[in-house]
Amino acid sequence: MGVIKDNTGKIREQCQELILSDKQIEEIMRRLLKEINKGLNKATHPEADIKCFITYVQDLPNGKEKGKFLALDLGGTNFRVLLIHLKDENDFEMVSKIYAIPQSIMLGSGTQLFDHIAECLANFMKEHSVYEEKLPLGFTFSFPLTQLGLTKGILARWTKGFNCSGVVGEDVVQLLKDAIARRGDVQIEICAILNDTTGTLMSCAWKNHNCRIGLIVGTGSNACYVERVDNCEMFDGPKDPNKKHVLINTEWGAFGDNGMLDFVRTEYDREIDHFSINPGRQIQEKMISGMYMGELARLAIVKFTRAGLLFGGVGSDILFKRGQFFTKYVSEIESDKPGTYMYCRDVLDELGLEHATDEDCANVRYICECVSSRAAHLVSAGIAALINKMDEKSVTVGVDGSVYRFHPKFHDLMKAKIRQFVKPDISFDLMLSEDGSGRGAALVAAVACREAH
User: Fold this and answer.
1) Which residues belong to any copy of the Hexokinase N-terminal domain (predicted)?
2) Coil, strand, or helix at residue 244?
3) Which of 89, 253, 353, 419 could anchor a disulfide with 348, C-beta 3.0 to 4.6 Å?
């Protein structure tokens, strides 16, 4: 038995680089804060990694919002159209439909993308008998935007596998309006464009007025938070003396693009970055999000298999193929009760690794735990830094995204780690957003309408 145990020891030893020490987390927090301040300040904004885009959202829901609103939620390989009827505080009706975005459109022209969205929107309105009405619409667009106002957002760059031509540098609200005008059959008033983090914060704030941070840990990773307008040198346009705060969309996925995270990156991180469609970009996101987590685990598993430490040195074609170890596998493997390997064996069978021993299962699980815990701790470092920066006595963090939602331990890992690094006199809470970015978009539109009328 000594030989097998020795493999376990070697694997654990080599996985040490995936484990963040408290000292490293403190350093990450310090660097993140420095980068956030760079993004907020006019002089340093152009070279800042964490852009801290101003959202121009200054009013949180107060529960008095009423009426029918449309929301459009584009943030990944599919998008949703929602119709939301807000009746009174905490009472609303919602219908929604998911539409796929084919790969050809994700990599095609911007015109094709927005025509596709407008067509789905019109079909949805027909289906739900609001085709004749003129409704306010909130547009959740979950890509890095430079906002010039509540209804004007310039795409800074594509992420998450999109690369539509003719959109970067353009106002996406205008592109959507143009596409709707080309059809000429539906009437829509676009009241707000926002990011999914803003939507999550708004959606949670509707139920919980303490919500000050919106966090996404899904295909991508990002956070927004409430900042004092006085600290926002990039705020453009008239400032309302009665409105002291504004939501900031940090776009923190880009943290580390200038080398700030190199001290904790591993060979697996570098390989993922090298083969991604945006090398050198979104470095922190590649260490956290669902788009990459499974692949990080796969690269470590492959390395140990080739070194003869896993599966007796015998891998499989599927295991050795890029992108074939899905992030959901990480969640499934970690859902097994300690000492049992039911889900783990299912996953390994799917990968053609039926010959795995119990030791192999235990080691694969350990690798997955290292990768997912590191992700949770990186996110926690960021959230703790934001909570300390805002320095309010009690803060609720609204969270959405598939990794946070489905990983069995992510919430608990975050709660413990944030507690460790938040000032002792501050209390905080993590709240799972019920359908955040969709309802949030409608709420931003509703609040904008509440203000306008």
Assistant:
1) 11-206
2) coil
3) 353
Q: What pLDDT, in 10s, does the model give residues 6-65?
A: 899 999 999 999 999 999 999 999 999 999 999 999 999 999 999 999 999 998 887 778
Q: Tell me which residue of 264, 268, 267 sits closest to 299, measured CA to CA.
A: 268
**Cβ-based burial of 366 (10 A; exposed 0-12, middle 13-18, buried ≥19):** middle
Strands 152-155, 145-149: pairing kind: antiparallel
Contacts of 75 (CB under 8 A, 6+ apart): 140, 141, 142, 143, 160, 196, 219, 220, 437
Q: Is 85 helix (H, G, I), strand (E, B) or coil?
A: strand
Q: Which of 32, 19, 412 is nearest to 252 (CA)?
A: 32
d(CA 174, CA 110): 12
In sequence order, what are the residues at sequence separation of 6 or more whose Cβ sits closer than 8 angstroms to the Cβ of residue 402? 218, 219, 290, 327
Using a 10 angstrom Cβ sphere, with 0-12 exposed, 13-18 middle and 19 or more buried, the burial of residue 229 is middle
Distance CA 260, CA 63 (A): 41
Helices (H), 128-229: 172-183, 196-207
Distance of CA 165 to the CA centre of its chain: 23
What is the rounded CA–CA span in Å between residue 446 and residue 92? 13
Distance CA 77, CA 179 (A): 20
By the 8 A CB rule, do 74 and 141 touch?
A: yes
pLDDT digits (tens, 9 = 90+) for 166-201: 999 999 999 999 999 999 898 899 999 988 889 899
The answer to whether 442 and 44 are in contact (CB under 8 A) is no
Q: Residues with catalytic annotation?
A: 160, 196
Could you report the per-residue pLDDT of 364-404, keeping only the tens digit for each?
999 999 999 999 999 999 999 999 999 999 999 999 999 99
Residue closest to 200 by CA, chosen among 446, 443, 437, 438: 437
Q: How many residues does the chain have?
A: 453
Q: How far apart are CA 24 and CA 30, in angstroms?
A: 10
Q: What is the pTM of this model?
A: 0.90
DSSP H stretches of helix in 224-316:
267-275, 283-288, 293-306
